[in-house]
Amino acid sequence: MSVEAYGPSSQTLTFLDTEESVLLGADTQGSEYDFTDFTLPSQTQTQGPTQSQLDNQVNGPAVVLQNGDDPVVKTSQLLAELNFEEDEEDAYYTKDLPLHACCYCGIHDPACVVYCNTSKKWFCNGRGNTSGSHIVNHLVRAKSKEVTLHKDGPLGETVLECYNCGCRNVFLLGFIPAKADSVVVLLCRQPCASQSSLKDINWDSSQWQPLIQDRCFLSWLVKIPSEQEQLRARQITAQQINKLEELWKENPTAALEDLEKPGVDEEPQHVLLRYEDAYQYQNIFGPLVKLEADYDKKLKESQTQENITVRWDLGLNKKRIAYFTLPKTDSDMRLMQGDEICLRYKGDLAPPWKGIGHVIKVPDNYGDEIAIELRSSAGAPVEIPQNFQVDFVWKSTSFDRMQSVLKTFAVDETSVSGYIYHKLLGHEVEDMVIKCQLPKRFTAQGLPDLNHSQVYAVKTVLQRPLSLIQGPPGTGKTVTSATIVYHLARQGTGPVLVCAPSNIAVDQLTEKIHQTGLKVVRLCAKSREAIDSPVSFLALHNQTRNMD
What we know:
The protein is an alpha+beta fold. Helices cover about 25% and strands about 15% of the residues. It has helices at about 50-55, 70-80, 90, 135-140, 225-230, 240-250, 280-300, 395-410, 420-425, 450-460, 475-490, 505-515, 540-545, and strands spanning about 35-40, 65, 115, 120-125, 145-150, 175, 185-190, 210, 210-215, 215, 305-310, 310-315, 320-325, 340-345, 355-360, 370-375, 390. The strands form five sheets. It has a seven-stranded antiparallel sheet, with no helix packed on it.
């Protein structure tokens, strides 16, 4: 490129070729720069802080580097020897906390914490990162209702209970101002706060207010921690609270730090709207089925009841029946007819005995008794009523079937039609319309007339390979389903299999379909054959028994 390209003021550049022995610049590595001893300047050589100021900042010896010492290594060693004081706020909730500290966030002001009488743990009235106070969060998740205030709080060690009936359910408790302005009376919502006798002692029931408002205890009852206190406290999320509550069910002494242990914080994969293939579908739903099975098993096995009194009887089929009453609990488990129960004798008046039977009666409006029919009464201590133990038998049949179906679906694409296969995986599939002869009258004989939305549902289902009908209770889903079965059977394409998630739902569908005049066979487990129901005469074993 020419020089003129850079303009008239450009000058010619000249490069000098030097010999290797000639160095351009300073030779900082020459022998005259070798130092055999190097010392940092002292305070007498510089104009700087005084000796006392240095002592207040650094507690340690002077830094002296000898020949061959690495200054970086030497400095790192000295820094490691220095003692730095931990910031007061950082250490506030990492040091040993008192026993009454909130198990979630660590706040331990006696005026701010409440003791849960059921779990034996303390919680504060602050919200932190959650929508409700920590104590209310715990009470809801642990299904607890009774609390006690701290002895050093403004109101002292007080168990919150109704002044009239002694009810301790804090979700029912409220207060009414008494005659004296500085006195309030705690009363439960029903029936005490609505009694007319309150007027005789000048208590205005219209002024009743709950103790818990906006998911927090009232501030005059339990102080709400200041915003500064909550910012200094240990930060915990709602997700961590859920996991900690689940961990407490197995290990009541667990702490928030235990969530960091391997395997504790592992979560299953989230359910997707679309799956690549059936293997991915199985890999996501398989662990979820196992989680539900483990929870159901743990729930059943934790319901063991001891010191049960049994009333013995003999059924018409000559099988021994045991009647007993179980104490009421807050468990999520519901006892159903057909469930298996193990009855054990734990007393000293007879040899140890164990018998398994299925439930034939559950608590109802006529009584709280439970009745089980024993498979075998051999050795049963029928003359002894006391010292029995009841164990709930967990059966994995339903969950094993789900896992088996998932496996089949993953390895065999032909297990279902191609349309349903891709629909289940969330793939975009062209809508299919089944050509069929629609009935002139959609209402089935023996069933109530259908409204417009129910007629549209029946018409749509008859023309689609897969349908979903949704609606709140009382909208006629059972009648609509029975009508659909009636028209499918009338098309002459073969038998129709009707399934439902519970025995009660199957009985209701069986009854409605039978009213249409169709031939119905009710299939049930052998353990339910002895249970009476409105459709028992349609059960397979009874129809077989009545055949010529």
